[in-house]
Design goal:
Radius of gyration: 29 Å
Number of strands: 20
Low-confidence stretches: 1-33, 252-258
Number of helices: 2
Distance between the termini: 86 Å
C-alpha cells in the first residue's frame, strides 16, 4: 500500500513538475498554455482542430469532454485530464486519480479519442478542464464545461379561464442540450392524462429540435370536469404547471369584471400612497 501511495505521488509530481519549475499559473501565464492544432505532416502528437472547445451538459446527466490526439504514441506519451480551478489531476491514461468516482476516461480501443466523462454532472462541475499530452514540451487543450438545468415552460399566464365547450390548447417548451428529455407526460392535478380515455378529444403533438422539445396538449369540448392544475412533466427536466378554470359565458364576464374592479382599486390605492409620499415635499414649497 505504501508503495502505491509513493508511486502515485511521484506521478503527480512528474506531471506537474514543468508547472512548478516555471511557476505556471493556468489563468495568468498563457505563455505555457500551448494548444497545438492541425499539423498533418508532423510526426509529434497534436490535437485535432475540429475538437469542440465548449461543452454544455445537463444537471444529473452525463457530460463527455472530447480530446482527440493525432499521432499519439502510447509508448512515449500519456494523456491526462486536469481540472483547471484547483490543478487537480483527474485521470492519467485510462486510470482515474481522484476519489470522486463520477470521473473516468472513455477511450475506445485503437482510437484517437480520450473523453473525460462526468456522470452525473452537478453545477459545481462547471469550469475549464485541460487535456494534457506528455510530449516535450507538453501540450494542453482547454475544454470549457457549462452546466444547466433542463426546464419546462408552458406558454401564457399561470392561470387560465377557458370557455365551456371550447378547446384547451397548452404549449410546453423544454430547453435541452442533451439527446432527449425523455417522455413528456401531462397531468391534471395528480392524474396522468389518458389519451385513449372514454372522454375522447385528448391529443398531444411533439416537436423536437437540437435546442428544444415542444409538447402541445389539446382537449376539445372542455367542460367543468376538465378544470384543474395541468402539469407538463418531462422525464429528465423540471416540470411546469398552469391552473385552468372552465367557465360559462356569464361566469367569464363576472371574472373579467372582478379583475377590472380589483385593478381599479389597486391603482387608486397606489395613487393615494404616492400623494401621501409627496405631500411633505409639496407643502415645503
Amino acid at each position: 500500500m505504501m508503495t502505491m501511495v509513493v508511486a502515485k505521488r511521484f506521478l503527480q509530481l512528474f506531471l506537474l513538475s514543468p508547472l512548478l519549475v516555471h511557476g505556471y499559473q493556468y489563468e495568468d501565464n498563457a505563455e505555457h498554455h500551448q494548444i497545438t492544432w492541425g499539423q498533418s505532416n508532423a510526426n509529434t502528437a497534436y490535437f485535432d482542430d475540429k475538437t469542440p472547445a465548449n461543452v454544455t451538459a445537463v444537471v444529473g446527466k452525463r457530460a463527455r469532454l472530447p480530446c482527440r490526439v493525432i499521432n499519439f504514441n502510447k509508448e512515449d506519451h500519456q494523456v491526462s485530464w486536469i481540472r483547471q480551478r484547483d490543478i487537480h489531476i483527474l485521470t492519467v491514461g485510462i486510470f482515474t486519480y481522484t476519489t470522486d468516482d463520477r470521473f473516468k476516461v472513455f477511450h475506445p480501443e485503437e482510437s484517437d479519442e480520450w473523453y473525460l466523462e462526468i456522470n452525473p454532472v452537478t453545477f459545481r462541475d462547471a469550469g475549464v478542464y485541460e487535456c494534457q499530452v506528455s510530449t516535450s514540451p507538453k501540450i494542453f487543450l482547454p475544454v470549457s464545461l457549462s452546466v444547466e438545468v433542463q426546464q419546462a415552460r408552458i406558454n401564457g399566464p399561470d392561470e387560465l379561464f377557458i370557455q365551456n365547450g371550447s378547446t384547451i390548447r397548452l404549449i410546453c417548451i423544454i430547453n435541452t442540450h442533451s439527446e432527449n428529455v425523455g417522455t413528456v407526460g401531462w397531468y391534471r392535478d395528480t392524474t396522468i392524462l389518458d389519451y385513449d380515455s372514454p372522454r375522447g378529444g385528448v391529443s398531444v403533438e411533439i416537436e423536437k429540435t437540437p435546442l428544444k422539445t415542444t409538447s402541445k396538449l389539446f382537449l376539445t369540448r372542455a367542460y367543468k370536469g376538465d378544470s384543474g392544475n395541468y402539469t407538463c412533466a418531462p422525464q429528465f427536466a423540471e416540470a411546469a404547471s398552469v391552473l385552468i378554470h372552465i367557465v360559462n359565458g356569464e361566469e367569464s364576464a363576472a371574472v373579467q369584471t372582478a379583475k377590472s374592479v380589483m385593478l381599479a382599486r389597486d391603482l387608486k390605492l397606489l395613487s393615494t400612497c404616492i400623494l401621501m409620499a409627496l405631500s411633505p415635499l409639496l407643502c415645503s414649497r
